[in-house]
Amino acid sequence: MAIEIKDLSYTYSPRTPYAATALRNVDFTIEEGVFLGIIGKTGSGKSTFIQHLNALIKLQSGSIKVMDIDLTAKKPDLKRLRGTVGMVMQYPEYQLFDETVEKDVAFGPKNLSLSEEEIKGRVREAITLVGLDFNEVRDRSPFELSGGQKRRVAIAGVIAMRPKILILDEPTAGLDPQGKKEILSLIRRLKETTSPTVIIISHDMDAVAEECDQVALFSEGKLAAFASPEEIFYNDELLAETEMDVPSVVKIAKELKKRGANIEGRPVKKAELIERIKRWRDE
Amino acid sequence: MPIRFDHVSYEYPSEDSPVLAVKDVSLDIEDGSFVCICGENGSGKSTLAKLINGLLQPTKGEVTVDGATTSTEEESELFAIRQKVGMVFQNPDNQMIASIIEDEIAFGPENLGVPREEIEERITYALEAVGMSEHRHHTPYKLSGGQKQRIAIASVLAMRPEVLVLDESTAMLDPKGRKEVLKVAHELNNQHITIILITHFMEEAAQADRVIVMNRGEIVMDDVPQKIFSDREKLERYDLELPVVDEIASELIEAGIPIPSQIYGESELAEAIWRSK
Amino acid sequence: MNNIVFGQYYPTGSVVHRMDPRIKLLMVILYIVSVFFIQDYVMYGALFLFVIAVALFSKVPIRILFRTVRTIIFLVLVTSVINLFFTQGETLLVHWKFIKIYKEGIERAIKLTLRLILLMLFPSLLTLTTTPMELTDAMESLMSPLKLIKVPVHAIALIMSIALRMIPILMEETNKIMLAQKARGADFDTGGAIKKAKAMIPVLVPLFVGAFRRADELALAMDARCYSSVAKRTKYKVLHIGVKDIVATLFCLAVFSLVFLNKYLWAFDEMILSIFK
Hints:
The structure holds three protein chains of three kinds.
Chain A: E1 3-12, E2 20-30, E3 35-39, H1 46-53, E4 61-66, E5 69-70, H2 78-84, E6 85-88, H3 101-111, H4 116-129, H5 134-137, H6 147-159, E7 165-169, H7 177-192, E8 197-201, H8 205-211, E9 214-219, E10 222-227, H9 229-233, H10 236-242, H11 248-258, H12 270-282
Parallel strand pairs in A: 3-8, 3-9, 6-7, 7-8
Antiparallel strand pairs in A: 1-2, 1-4, 4-5, 9-10
Helix pairs in contact in A: 3-4, 3-6, 4-6
Chain B: E1 3-12, E2 19-29, E3 34-38, H1 45-52, E4 60-65, E5 68-69, H2 75-84, E6 85-88, H3 101-112, H4 116-130, H5 145-157, E7 163-167, H6 175-190, E8 194-199, H7 202-205, E9 210-215, E10 218-223, H8 225-230, H9 232-237, H10 244-254, H11 266-275
Parallel strand pairs in B: 3-8, 3-9, 6-7, 7-8
Antiparallel strand pairs in B: 1-2, 1-4, 4-5, 9-10
Chain C: H1 21-37, H2 41-58, H3 62-70, H4 73-86, E1 92-96, E2 99-102, H5 103-129, H6 132-143, H7 153-183, H8 193-199, H9 201-224, H10 243-264, H11 268-276
Antiparallel strand pairs in C: 1-2
Helix pairs in contact in C: 1-5, 1-6, 1-10, 2-5, 2-10, 3-5, 4-5, 6-7, 7-9
C-alpha cells in the first residue's frame, strides 16, 4: 500500500463568493510498484489531487496516508513526506534557479539535511540517470542549456531526493516527438531503479495506454473510474459521460469489431493490436 | 501574393561558435495554400518562420513578400510586410498586452492607423471568424489555452493579413485546444488566407496541401502529405513521428497486409483492414 | 463583470461607475487639495456628507467603503496620540506627572484624525468605482498634452496596461514556482527575516528570468503587429464627457469652493453658533 486516499474533498476559497469545489469524495488506494496514469479534462481536479499527495495543499476534508505518514496528523512529517514523494510539475524547466546545474540539483538533497558527501553522490547519480553527462554539465549554468536538457535537469533535481513515489504532471508537455520518446523512456528507467511507484498526469491517451498499468479518470472533481486502461478505454458509456478521448489503438480496434472482425480481447497497446490483427487475418 | 526565399541563410550571433540555423533555403509559397513546416526542435523551422515577416533578417540571401524585400531598414516597409503576413506565437499568455479582449484586438489596427469606426467593424469580424464573439468585453485571464490562441489569431486577423503564420501555436495546448486552433486555421484557409503552420505534430500535417520537412537548417523533404507520410525511413531519420494510426498502417503494410498506402484516420484504417481479408 | 483585477473594484453599474474616469480622477485630486484647506468643524462635516452622498449614488455599501479606512487605523491612532501629548498651547487640561495635555492638543488630534479618514475615503471610492484599466486610460488622456514636449505618453500608458495584464499571470507563476520548490523540500515559513529572505531566492530567480523571457516574447509579438513608439497611431477607445460628468463636476466644485470660502472668507462655525445665541 503506497498511498491510501479516503473520502478526499477540497474547496478553494471556501466561505467566500469565489468558492470552487475541486475534489469530491475521492476514494481509492494506489499500490506500490504501480504505474498510474491520471486522466481527465482540464479542470477535473487532477492537479489539485496530486498536490495533496505531498501536502502542497493542506488536507481540508478526508484522509490520506502515504506509506506510513498520516497526513491527518496535526504536524505530519513534511520533510520525510517530500523525500518520499517526489513531484515534477508542468514545464519544470521554468523552476531552475541556481548558478550551476550541480548546485540546482543539490537543492532537494540539501533540504533533506543530508551530509555533504551524500549530497554530492546523489547529485552525480541523478544527473547521470536522466541521461546527461555529469562532467559536461555540472558547472554550466542551467539557463544556457537547451529546453530538453533543462527539463532533464529539473527532473534530476527531484530524483536526487530518491523518492519512492514519483509524480509527474504532464511530463511530455511542449516536447517534440523525439523529446517525448526520451522522457517516457527515462520515466520507465526511473521506475525500474529509484522510484518503483510512478504516477503521471497526461492528456496523451496513446502514451497512457502504452505505459500505464492502471488509470484513474477524474471528472468534475470526482473519481469517475479507477481501473486498467482496457477497462476504462472500452467503457463507451463512461467515456461519453466524461467526454474523454481514446487512444488511436482503441479507436481502430473498436471500428474493426464494429465491422464484425473477430479481434481477440481488448487491445490498448500498439503491438497488441498489430499482433491480433495479424492473427485474425490468419484465421 | 507569393512569399519567396532566395538562398536564405540565417546565423544566430553567438560569442563562441555562431550557429547557422537556416542553411541556404530556397522556397516559394503560393497564395491560398496550406503549408505545414515540420521538424524537430533545432531544425530551424521557428527561425524560418521569423524570417518570413522580417522579425529576423537573412544573413545571406533574400526573403521577398509580394516583391518587397524583408532586408530593409525602413520601418514602414517592414510594417507593410507584417500587415500582410500575420504571426501567432507559441505561448498564449505572452502575446497579449491588454486586460480586455476588445482592446487587445484593437491594438494591431491602432498601430496601422486605422480609423476608429473601421476598427469597430474589424473587431466584430475578427472575433466572429474565430468563434469568440461573446468574450468581447471579458478579460483574457480566465480563458483556456485554445481560446487564448484564438484571440491571438483574431488580433492578427483584425489587421487583414493575406498570410497567417502559426509558429508552433499548438505546442502548449491540450488536445481540445489544438483541435480548436486547427479548425480556425482551416476555416481561414477556405477564405483564401494562406496558412503556414509550423509544428512538430505530424497529425496536423496530414491535412495540409504541402508538407515541408526541415532538418538542421535545411529543407529535406517537400511534398504532399501522402508522399511524406509514406517515407517512414526518412521521417525516422529526421526524428519525426507519424501519428499512431499511420504508424500502425505502416507496420501492417510492412508485414505484408494488402492495404493501400495512404494517410489514415482510425475508421479509414479499420475499413481498409477489414476489406483486406 | 470579468474586469476585476484587484479586489478593490466593486461593480454595481451605478452612475458613478459609468462616469468618465478622467473627471473622477480630477475631482479626487481637487478633493485631496481641499482636505488640506479645511478650517472649521462644519466643513469636516460637510465633506463627510459629500463623501456619503457620492457613496450613495455609487451604490457601494457604506461598510465596504469604511473597510478601507481600517487599513490606516494604526497610522491614525499613532498620529493623533503624538499630537495629543506633544502639542503645546494655552489651556492646560490635564497635568499628571510629566504628561501635559492642552486643549489645543485635543483639537489638533481630532482634526488630524478626521483629515486622515477623509483623505482615505474619497480616493477609495475612486478605486471602488473605477477599473484599473479605466484609470490607465484616464491618465493617458490627461497626460496627452505632454506629447507636445515629446513625453512618450502612449508608451507609458502601454507599460501600465501590460503591467495590469501581467500581474495576475505573475502572481500565478510565483505560486507555481513556490509549490515546485516546496516539493523539493523548500521551507518558506520558518526562520527569521534573513533566513526567509534567502529562502525566496529559488522563487525570485526563476520569476525574474521568466519575466524577462516573457518581455522578450511580448516585444516580438508587438513587433509582429507593427507597434511603433514613433509612428502615428489611432485610438479605439475614446472617453466621452457626458451630462452626468458635467453635473458631477459642478456639484464637486461647489462643495470644494465652500471649503476655500470657509478658509479665506466666511467663518461657518461662528455663523452657526451665532444663530443659537
